[in-house]
Records
---
Amino acid sequence: DTNILPSSSTHPDSLSKFPNSPVYRESWDSVRFVVRVFFGDIQEVVTDRGIRCAAKTLNLPVQLGDKKETKTKNIDEAIKSERNLCRLRHPNIVRFLHMAQPEPATVVVFMELLDGRSLERFIDNNKPLDELTIRDFSEQICRTLLYLHSRQPPVIHRDINCSNMIVCADNTRIKLIDFGLSIKLEQSVSRHSAFPESLKGTLSFMAPELLGIGTSECEQYSRESDIWAFGCSVFQMASGTKPFSKVKNFWEMALDLYRRGAPALPEGRSAEFQDFYSRCTAKDRSERHSAEKLLEHEFLRKKSDSQH
């Protein structure tokens, strides 16, 4: 698994000591390397304030060159807007502690440590998941999306997928991590709003409109594209594989989406579940249900003792 946060316990006492201050004064020391991620890595660190946390370092692949001033300004603006992540407080969202910019094209995001494994790894070990588990996880994710999408301005995750969700150690709680910051930062220095090469890691979770399907040009990330990506995560929970896992490149993916839309769920799933999935993955984004509406869907409202 290449996207899991450290399997360590959070230290709430050390976090509460400095709730409104940066997590460090001048420096931090790496305790251990955790994992390499898109544009960088995650390390477990201890700061000079005695706070143990996760530090995700992003090294943007940009040549500042002649337009250094403009690109640096764009990066600064993107980081400024993303500092709002540190204000998020929800039981299903990793706590963002601080965001630093030690170099013009380097960003460090400090987050709480989590004890758990990615949903992708959880699926690999238990695939496919039964409907009771899928219902429980889906309800948690929908409540989280409702919280994000209802904020002013709305918080768009931009990178919903099973490797960006952590199943906590009790195997019952889901936490959303990695809010597509690397995508937004790269867009801030690129002319291409949704250029396929820059989104390799999340291609199979990208909504049709982000690929220019059904629109005159590629759309920006939105509440609806988050819902589509959530639907793709539901597919992976139900099937054990990523959607569009057999396509080889961007163009195959776009053609497959244009012709067939979202892949069908495996046979044997309940009618309520099939309908719920279809509401997440409507090709026309205006027909997708909002997180609020999905929470009212019969699939999520079924009693916990109903059929698997």
Note: The CA atoms of residues 14 and 236 lie 37 Å apart.
---
Amino acid sequence: MSEGTRREPSLSALDNDHDDFAASSAEARLAAEPEDHDDSQDAERYRLVDLDGVGDSFKSGSRRMGASMQRSYASFQQGLADRREQKRLNKVRREEERSHKAARDAELRRQAQEQAAEDKALQEAERRRREADRIAQADDDDPLFAPPRARHADEMPRDSGASRAFPAADDGFSSDADANSEVVRAHPVLEKALRHDVSAEHARHALSHAEEIIVISVMSRDAQGFSGTALLDLMLTCGLRYSRDMGIFHRFETEDPESQLQFSMVNVLKPGTFPIESMGDFRTTGVTLLMPLPGASDTTAAFEAMVETAMVIVRHLGGELKDENHSVMTAQTVGFARQRVQEFERRNRLNRYQVN
């Protein structure tokens, strides 16, 4: 074929090239040495195609991850449990501390209360001691509790040693007796009072051993007070009898010497007595009626007699009723006092019934 002639491509050239490449490859293989073979390439080629190993690797990794998650979860749960337990222990400790504190506070309060009660008891004992001392000092002037005096000097035996040793005193008493005789002749009311003089022992015992005492005072509305003469006349009219031993008036249930005391009347001014020999010059701002319980056999009648006597003084001498607290007595207050008497009588009857 000439150079000027154009040649068409054909597959023969490719075939020739393929044959050349195959021949060179065959020569290359034939020329390789065994020690020049790289096993890692075979291993790598093997790993790339080992699907079972890949699956096992995934499973192993999954198991390890699951175990790790389980351990993490277990650790988390244990931490939560530890925190809950710690909170519970802290709560128990706080409750114990509060309980101990409350117990300490209660003990301190109890000790303080006991100390306060002890101090109060000591103060009360001291007050009672001072009150007892004051009463003991005033007893000599108290007509209700003072020891009885000799009512009449002429009751002493004339042949006694005292009469012989003090003749001047006897003469003085005789002079006083003569003077008193003149007073008696001048005042028939006073003569009546002295003639009906009563012993004070029975009345003193009733007043000093009373469980309760009903008190009604009659205070004068006049600044000059009650007249002694008018007061003496009213008391004798109301059935009261004068006691020279005590220097006060008493009203008994009957004229019998052993009759029970209904009530007594004392002067509101200390020492509480009435100077019977000088009632004409005597004046007082008020009188107090005292009804002991127990006392009269019929306490209701005794109370009504005392109220009526107080009202007689109010009506005739212009007085005002006062209770034991020096408050004005009203009809309601009198009713309360009457209820006290009735309640005491009821309890007294019940006690007697139980004893019998």
Note: The chain is about 60% helix and 10% strand.
